[in-house]
Amino acid sequence: MESKILDVIRIQIKSIYNVQRLYSARAIQIEKNIGKAVNAAIIGAPNSGKSTLINKILERKVCATSNKVHTTTKLARAICYDNDTQIIFLDTPGVVTDKEHNKYKLPEAMKQACKKSLSCADVIGVVHDVSNRWTKERLHPTILDMLNMVVNVPSFLIINKVDLLKSKKQLLDIIRNLTNGVIAGNPVPSCSTPQSKDQGFGNFSDVFLVSALNGDGVKDIKDYLISNSKVRKLQYSSDKWSDRSTETLIEEAARAKFLDFLAQEIPYHLETTLEYYDDNEAEGKVTCSLSVACPSERIVKLIAGAGGGRLQQIKSSLRNDLIDMIKKPVTVDINLIPKNKPSCEQEIL
């Protein structure tokens, strides 16, 4: 029944406007480095599912994800090549307040990463977590400020985690509030009175209902971006899937894994460094070793767990993520080192 309601709502959204192509270009290959491409900035509140969405579209775990906020701390590009079209995703950190920035000891550049991504974008996708009962009816104020700064850049709304919404019947009202009752210049039907217009954005050209985690509705976004590509010089080769090195991605994946397994603010105080990396082309496998600087010996023992059990779980989960990212067998080791004993390097397996 719920899936039928979602289908009906999607049809209703499509019926009030025609999906318009932002760019019209013929896919004529003049040179090998000329093709169709689109730069898509993906923004949203922390933990709204931005990185998960990008990973699902790429079918590769390029962007680090965790169940805690502020997993992504730097602007990163993830590249998808499909149907002779290059989609360049600009994965951004979740918008943060000064208080959060100081609390989690986040990089200074993180505050400007979202704004920087907008200046590079052909189109902007706003990911909104509809499962959050406190914020599902309104966009984050900082997101609104950013969108109002770039009103000439086409944008679309991605309503994520619809599978967690208990009543799908309220989706149309939520969409009306988030869009100020307007999509692509056309009114959104609703049975209720919309909220204040300062809580939504009325310039969205399209709305998508998705569950990034299970992939529902994700293909529609990919097709939409392909339709909005334009002919230009390609920035990356067809076998490139990130603008950052594999080594850097491994470090970020490890950091995200500690966020998943450790409580409270402990993981935000760890410093993860890749000490060894070998991509053996002949054997088709990757071997890597990471060191993790911990604030104290007590934290080392806490992370390791009884008999090193928790660390083994972290290593196993990280290995699976790296296999999903690199698409090769991976061997990974993690060494925990207390900062107050730099001369006593201790490996806990």
Question: What keywords describe this structure?
Answer:
349 residues; 10 helices; single chain; three-stranded mixed sheet; seven-stranded mixed sheet
Describe the overall structure:
- By secondary structure, this protein is α/β, with parallel strands linked by helices.
- Helix content is 31%, strand content 23%.
- It has helices at residues 2-15, 50-58, 98-103, 110-120, 141-149, 171-178, 218-227, 246-261, 297-304, 309-326; strands at 34-44, 76-82, 85-91, 123-129, 155-160, 182-183, 186-187, 204-209, 230-233, 271-280, 285-294, 330-338.
- α5 links the parallel β4 (123-129) and β5 (155-160).
- α8 crosses α10 (309-326).
- The chain starts with a helix and ends in an 11-residue tail after the last strand.
